[in-house]
Specification:
By secondary structure, the chain is α+β, with helices and mostly antiparallel strands. The protein has one domain (2-116). The chain has helices at residues 2-18, 40-43; strands at residues 20-23, 29-32, 36-38, 49-51, 55-59, 65-72, 83-86, 90-92, 95-97, 100-104, 109-116. The strands form 3 sheets. Strands 1-2-5-6-11-10-7 form a 7-stranded antiparallel beta sheet, with no helix packed on it. It has a two-stranded antiparallel sheet with strand order 3-4. A two-stranded antiparallel ribbon has the order 8-9. Strand 10 and strand 11 (109-116) form a beta hairpin. The protein is elongated, with a radius of gyration of 14 Å.
Length: 120
């Protein structure tokens, strides 16, 4: 648990430092090209995955956020069947959330999605 928390903090710092925001037409901020990390307990794989190519986050002026990261699983490590993980701690640029899910496919991909929704 301690190693997961340390990894989460390191990942938060890494993609906070290296992100490049862009203003979208709707007033939302689109952030791309940051390092995104998924630990083994959230992907179901025996190792940490990183990506900085297929990662983006959209933050709205109302305080809502969605983060998506696409990872490629190294050859030979694909799971035998699709794995689903939900409700784990995830860090976005607007804060932490447990509104999260990861889908790890036998086709060699992992999709991480995390949402922050402002409470009304």
């Amino acid at each position: 648990m301690k190693s997961s928390l340390a990894l989460l903090i390191a990942a938060s710092i890494a993609f906070t430092i290296s992100a490049i925001p862009a203003q979208a037409h709707s007033g939302a901020t689109v952030i791309k090209w940051f390092v995104c990390v998924i630990p083994p307990e959230d992907s179901g794989l025996p190792f940490v995955l990183f990506t900085d190519v297929a990662a983006h986050e959209v933050d709205t002026p109302s305080g809502n956020s969605i983060l998506q990261c696409h990872f490629d699983i190294p050859k030979g490590f694909n799971p035998a069947h699709t794995l689903h993980h939900e409700s784990f701690l995830c860090s976005t640029f607007l804060g932490l959330t447990t509104n999260s899910r990861a889908i790890t496919t036998k086709g060699g991909k992992v999709l991480l999605t995390c949402q922050v929704k402002r409470r009304s």
